[in-house]
Design brief:
It is a single chain. By secondary structure, the chain is of the alpha/beta class. It folds into two domains: 260 residues, Zn peptidases (Aminopeptidase); 112 residues, Alpha-Beta Plaits. 34% of the residues lie in helices and 27% in strands. The strands form four sheets. An eight-stranded mixed sheet has the order 1-2-4-3-5-16-6-15, sandwiched between helices. It has a four-stranded antiparallel sheet with strand order 10-12-8-13, covered by helices on one side. Helix 3 links the parallel strand 3 and strand 4. The longest helix is centred in the middle third of the chain and has 19 residues.
Length: 385
């Protein structure tokens, strides 16, 4: 495979920094989508806009052959940036703190290169997905008929990965990232005077016991071979120092690496909420906010992606079947609907990258030629002339 021309790399770096200065939240990426569509049209691609409100699919055809999709996420986060470089966000309270600006620039660079070289036979759909951060843009695209309108044999995505050096890639034949669900617990007792607790039913004491009990759900009710995390992250109760409150509110998140474990944890958590408060005269209720499913790579496509990365100039090492992350990713919805794979692209240069979702994070532009290279290698090896 030929090296990516320096002109395309430098142009993609400029696109990336331009996106970084003008971040937009999920389903509000109107200016971002307009720029992406104009660039894709200038490359001669067939562009479809307005999918899941602000999503774009651009199609590049070169003869008869298989069809694959490549996806990038385009939304930013509600974080106030603390960097001081020239391309800092000019939208107060918003920043590209997860690298979606870089993912978008990489996919645009790959689209330009492939449109000019066409060393493949078949069709590539370039998918620019809105609202990866919490709003489920991937789910919306699937629901709006992404794979019916644009049939494909496989779909792929990448994410930059702080903690892994530049020049390294990780991909697995199975789970890459966890499911993510939020839960909201209400404990209702009987309020009263703090000096006379026997006349009330204290939801705070019941809540303390429930918090401790939930920590045993993973360690004592699941097999050690199952992987899940429950974190309680919010607690609200009480108004006056001398009053036992009527209610206590708890909230948290559940992460799992299989759908079977996920369903078992739903069942167990509800069992604990309904039973642990009872001896204290308190009633428990839980409300679920179901989030992203497990990001589960398909074995065949993971192997294809592994081979493509191994044949990409500048990629020094490919980690295969590495340990997954308990973070979540809505590319999972696309993988539920179509065979495909997702990989991590190492982000740490001489100075380690700030973590994702950190106000001092900035995408490492050294990843751009590597990311473009993997996409080009994947297309040219999957859609051989």
């Amino acid at each position: 495979m030929a090296l990516i021309p320096q002109q395309i790399i430098e142009q993609a770096q400029r696109w990336r920094r331009d996106f970084h200065t003008r971040p937009e939240l999920g389903l509000q990426e109107h200016a971002t989508a307009k720029i992406i569509a104009e660039l894709l049209q200038s490359f001669g691609l067939e562009v479809h806009s307005g999918i899941a409100q602000t999503g774009i699919v651009a199609t590049l055809r070169n003869g008869e052959g298989p069809t694959i999709g490549l996806r990038a996420d385009i939304d930013a986060l509600p974080i106030s940036e603390l960097n001081d470089f020239a391309h800092i966000s000019c939208h107060p309270g918003l920043m590209h703190a997860c690298g979606h600006d870089g993912h978008t620039a990489i996919l645009l660079g790959a689209a330009r290169y492939l449109s000019e070289t066409r060393h493949f036979r078949g069709t590539v759909h370039f998918i620019f997905q809105p609202a990866e951060e919490n709003a489920g843009g991937g789910r919306l695209m699937v629901q709006e008929g992404l794979f019916e309108r644009f049939p494909m044999q496989a779909v792929y995505a990448l994410h930059n990965w702080p903690g892994m050096p530049v020049g390294e890639v990780a991909v697995s034949q199975g789970p890459m990232m966890a499911s993510q669900d939020n839960f909201y617990i209400t404990l209702t007792g009987k309020g009263g005077h703090a000096a006379m607790p026997e006349l009330g039913a204290d939801p705070i004491v019941a809540g303390a016991q429930l918090i401790l009990a939930l920590q045993t759900l993973i360690s004592r009710r699941l097999s050690p071979l199952e992987q899940a995390v429950i974190s309680l992250t919010q607690l609200q109760a009480g108004e006056a120092i001398n009053v036992i409150p009527e209610t206590l509110q708890l909230a948290g998140t559940l992460r799992c690496l299989s759908n079977q474990t996920r369903q078992r944890c739903w069942q167990l958590l509800e069992e604990y909420v309904n039973s642990v408060p009872v001896p204290y005269g308190v009633k428990g209720e839980v409300r679920w906010e179901l989030g992203y499913p497990v990001t589960q790579n398909h074995p065949e496509q993971a192997e294809i992606l592994r081979s493509a990365a191994e044949h990409t100039p500048g990629i020094r090492q490919v980690h295969f079947n590495n340990a997954p992350s308990m973070a979540a990713e809505d590319f999972a919805y696309l993988l539920e609907a179509c065979p495909g794979a997702y990989f991590w692209l190492g982000a740490d240069g001489a100075t380690p990258s700030a973590s994702l979702h950190n106000p001092r994070y900035d995408f490492n532009d050294d990843l751009i030629p590597l990311g473009i290279g993997v996409w080009v290698s994947l297309v040219e090896r999957s859609l051989k002339l």
